[in-house]
Amino acid sequence: MRGPGEWPGCRAGSHTVVADGVLIPAERLLEFPLGPYDAPHLSQGRPLEIVSQTVSVTATLVGAALGALDVVKAVVKTRKPPMTRYDSLAESASARHVFAFAEAEHMVTSSYDRLISLAGRIDALLPGDDVTVVQRSSLRMEVVSIVQQFVRAVDLLLDLHGFSAFALDNPLQRFWRDLNVGARHAQLSTCIATENYGRLVTEAAGAGGLSIRRPSLAA
Description:
- The chain has helices spanning 49-75, 93-100, 104-125, 133-161, 171-182, 190-206.
- The chain is mostly helical.
- The chain is globular.
- Mean pLDDT is 80; it is low at 211-219.
């Protein structure tokens, strides 16, 4: 039995059972068909399966973003900004802007709403046989965008709270670490999702067939 190892965030992990030299019967093996570019076709005939899994991974990060928001919300009227005359963050117009309006609070709550809406649309479309590869890639890009919005929001909350948020007994640093580690999950790779989407829409545009409007995906 091999443990999950040490991680700076998301400390809970899965143990691995290591079996060396064990014969595995052929009926226990699963061979994936090859998809585009000879990569394993992991969706097994359900074109939106991978996208739906990406949403599931993202759902575990929602709690970290909401938790970080709750931590700062609890101290915004009592925590004094250092080296200022303000008695609380709530007295600072800049802090109120970052916390309550166009910045952190709106990013977290609007991204949560976007994720719920996206999950409903994907669920209604499964298995997604009639969805084009460009549309699937666009859906995955939307998931990645939501995750990046969560990360940016919690960074702002950390800025607002200040240096003491990194104390080990402060839950804000734990939410920040967990979110940033989870956002680097293979399913949420920003560079690969962006590269794939860019290649698809460029190829479609070059062929005169670019169409990313998806009326069938409306909530």
